[in-house]
Amino acid sequence: KILVTGALGQIGSELTMELRKIYGNDNVVASSRRMKEGQEKVIESGPFEIVEVTNAEQIADVVKKHEVNTIVHLAALLSAVGEQKPNQAWDINMNGLYNVLEVAREKNCAVFTPSSIAAFGPSTPKDKTPQDTIQRPGTMYGVTKVAGELLCDYYYKKFGVDTRGVRFPGLISYETLPGGGTTDYAVHIYYEALKQKKYTSFIQEGTLMDMMYMPDALNAIISLMEANPDKLIHRNAFNITAMSFAPEDIAAEIKKHIPEFEMDYDVDPVRQAIADSWPDSLDDSAARKEWGWDPKYDLSSMTIDMLEKLKEKLNK
Ligand code: VAH
């Protein structure tokens, strides 16, 4: 059985439903540190547990109760909120991961946990960032992502825990809003375009960041979890990307569908500094070679789908 932590978050809420579709509702246990409005679908479509990942016993109890053999660990604080609450970010992101890995070691579970482009910093090569390169991030979130990658590789090498992960770029989706990220502008812009026909970007013109549509992100997680371990040279964590764009690019794409859409800028220095420290584009050839990574959505097809699905959701 699979346990998903952070199951009510931007990735977790969709991944839980996708995993239940594939493996059966009762075989996927959703967990979150608290209940959340609007997540009835996840909470009611299969087993749901309240788990605070900083409490190892709670994780162990749920793993035992449901005979879990795979943990998808998504519970974390993201980059921008992590700069507001660095201590909490360390506690949740690092002690949470440590507890998951310790339970996995004791109960013989496999572990999937994502890293991020945030695991790179200002001294990392920005164009076609290599799979193996300098990783000196300047955010607490980035520190926890690099430390997390190293800890997961350690648990694989030292204890044989089957750990795997991907470095996610910004993720764009219409089901659940992201919580406190730097790439969130690329989600909010679609909502605002439909509601106000205008958006004020907190990231400045010309700021390139890797991005991906949620369906491709879910496929990446499932493909890597199911990949033949003999083919894996890397484990924590694979560069993956689907597109790289700046605010003016996504605004222009939206304008093709909503001609009167206008965007202006009110740059947030904190999130701009974070975005400036990240790569402009990733080299994801290792993921393509080792487990067949192959995204389906680009900016144009994502925009068509996002606007269509959000119109239904906002009943526009
Ligand atoms: C964030 N969406 O902005 C997350 C992610 C690469 C970005 O880590 O913090």
TrEMBL record:
<dbReference type="GO" id="GO:0008743">
    <property type="term" value="F:L-threonine 3-dehydrogenase activity"/>
</dbReference>
<protein>
    <submittedName>
        <fullName>Nucleoside-diphosphate-sugar epimerase</fullName>
    </submittedName>
</protein>
<dbReference type="InterPro" id="IPR051225">
    <property type="entry name" value="NAD(P)_epim/dehydratase"/>
</dbReference>
<comment type="similarity">
    <text>Belongs to the NAD(P)-dependent epimerase/dehydratase family.</text>
</comment>
<dbReference type="Pfam" id="PF01370">
    <property type="entry name" value="Epimerase"/>
</dbReference>
<dbReference type="GO" id="GO:0006567">
    <property type="term" value="P:L-threonine catabolic process"/>
</dbReference>
<feature type="domain" description="NAD-dependent epimerase/dehydratase">
    <location>
        <begin position="2"/>
        <end position="240"/>
    </location>
</feature>
<dbReference type="InterPro" id="IPR001509">
    <property type="entry name" value="Epimerase_deHydtase"/>
</dbReference>
<dbReference type="InterPro" id="IPR036291">
    <property type="entry name" value="NAD(P)-bd_dom_sf"/>
</dbReference>
